[in-house]
């Protein structure tokens, strides 16, 4: 059945059918040919019970928060401010790409939205200042992946919802690995640009007065992040309530900087509806597919298969890592999460691994899927913002950052406390 499922999934995706519809079609197929019960009769109740969950309300709020920040022009201000602080490093403006992506990741919760924001602002600078198009574009695509690691993360909310684990603890667990990945991107960029200075373009140095004045444009993002995360960790608000507070704060910031207007609000709401509808279709479709898979016994079949291999707990983790790397080439990230979590996570937890730690490990692997062809969404987002050049340039530019992600995977496996230190310390 695993073979039929894989062939069906890849075949339907190759026809450019929307992922949510593909998940429903696979569920119908498994119900027809493998399930001993007519599960289709419970579809209505399943759709309602999946969507009628207060935790998922946080998703449209965080999407709206990101939309407001992007469309209010705050991205341009943030990018210009970070340019003054990091462009003196080997690599120059490439570090501003990573730094801006990191800051917007701390508010938007979406990798694709983060990559689109930074690409729109940064790409015009690449040609004007003579940067290598491959590394410059790759840094934007890789920096955008931080949107699903650094809290608040929509993917961590989905993981917590599907595994019934604490979302505040997941947010805490993602903070150190997310910042470490951003620093890793900076370090690997510096090394490459010291070896080949032509990759980094012009290094610019600004006066201390200019750097201090630029801090004013960074205060709103830092303040917004502090309010959102602080209210969650202090117990003053749930993630959903904190997301609503974040939206209100984003509106205040947009008004303060003169970026609010009827058109901006309308475009933000429309973008939120589109993105949220896509996410919910995938989540509901995956819930139905998981329901049919459980009824057909795939979970038992996979568990028996892995048990039959005689793997140690660490061997199981290494196999799971390889599975996610391979599947990440072909399956969109959110779909990959919701399809595999109900099957993989129980097996991993049964071996004594912490579900919070595994959630962060999975997110790093999911991040990698965002910048690996042929389905890496961030590759297409960055290429769409470029005025010239091929997709191959963006793909080649992400290779150093994929290496950094693999090193983070190894570090998390070797030292689980990288993810667990903050949740345990602040419990």
TrEMBL record:
MF terms (GO), sorted A to Z: transmembrane transporter activity
Pfam families: DctM (PF06808)
Compartments reported by the entry: Cell inner membrane
Residue ranges that the Swiss-Prot or TrEMBL entry lists as coiled coil: none
Domain TRAP C4-dicarboxylate transport system permease DctM subunit stretches: 7-418
Membrane topology value: Multi-pass membrane protein
Transferase is among the record's keywords: no
Keyword terms, alphabetized: Cell inner membrane, Cell membrane, Membrane, Transmembrane, Transmembrane helix, Transport
Subunit description: The complex comprises the extracytoplasmic solute receptor protein and the two transmembrane proteins.
Described purpose of this protein according to its UniProt entry: Part of the tripartite ATP-independent periplasmic (TRAP) transport system.
UniProt similarity note: Belongs to the TRAP transporter large permease family.
Protein name (record): TRAP transporter large permease protein
Organism for this UniProt entry: Lutimaribacter saemankumensis
């Amino acid at each position: 059945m695993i073979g039929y499922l894989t062939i069906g999934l890849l075949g339907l995706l190759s026809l450019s059918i929307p992922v949510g519809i593909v998940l429903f079609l696979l569920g119908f197929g498994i119900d027809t040919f493998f399930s001993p019960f007519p599960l289709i009769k419970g579809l209505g109740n399943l759709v309602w019970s999946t969507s009628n969950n207060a935790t998922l309300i946080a998703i449209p709020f965080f999407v709206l928060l990101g939309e407001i920040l992007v469309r209010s022009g705050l991205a341009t201000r943030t990018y210009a401010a970070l340019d003054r602080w990091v462009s003196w490093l080997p690599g120059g403006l490439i570090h501003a790409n990573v730094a801006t992506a990191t800051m917007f990741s701390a508010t938007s919760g979406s990798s694709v939205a983060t990559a689109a924001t930074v690409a729109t602002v940064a790409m015009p600078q690449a040609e004007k200042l003579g940067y290598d198009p491959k590394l410059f574009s790759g840094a934007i695509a890789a920096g955008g992946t931080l949107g699903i690691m650094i809290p608040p993360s929509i993917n961590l909310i989905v993981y917590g919802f599907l595994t019934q684990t604490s979302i505040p603890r997941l947010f805490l667990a993602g903070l150190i690995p997310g910042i470490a990945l951003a620093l890793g991107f900076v370090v690997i960029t510096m090394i490459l640009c010291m070896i080949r200075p032509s990759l980094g373009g012009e290094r610019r140095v600004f006066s201390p007065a200019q750097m201090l004045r630029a801090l004013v444009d960074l205060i709103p993002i830092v303040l917004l992040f502090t309010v959102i995360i602080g209210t969650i960790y202090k117990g003053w608000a749930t993630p959903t309530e904190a997301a609503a507070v974040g939206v209100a704060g984003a509106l205040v910031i947009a008004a303060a900087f003169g970026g609010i207007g009827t058109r901006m609000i309308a475009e933000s709401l429309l973008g939120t509806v589109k993105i949220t509808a896509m996410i919910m279709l995938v989540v509901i479709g995956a819930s139905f597919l998981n329901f049919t898979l459980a009824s057909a016994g795939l979970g038992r079949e996979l568990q028996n298969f892995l048990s039959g291999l005689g793997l140690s707990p660490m061997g199981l983790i290494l196999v799971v890592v390889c599975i996610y790397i391979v599947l990440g080439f072909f399956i969109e990230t959110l779909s990959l999460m919701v399809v595999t979590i109900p099957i993989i996570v129980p097996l991993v937890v049964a071996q004594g691994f912490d579900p919070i730690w595994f959630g962060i490990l999975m997110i790093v692997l999911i991040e990698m899927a965002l910048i690996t062809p042929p389905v890496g969404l961030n590759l297409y987002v960055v290429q769409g913002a470029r005025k010239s050049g091929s997709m191959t340039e963006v793909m080649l530019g992400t290779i150093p950052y994929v290496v950094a992600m693999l090193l983070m995977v190894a570090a998390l496996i070797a030292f689980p406390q990288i993810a667990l230190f903050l949740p345990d310390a602040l419990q």
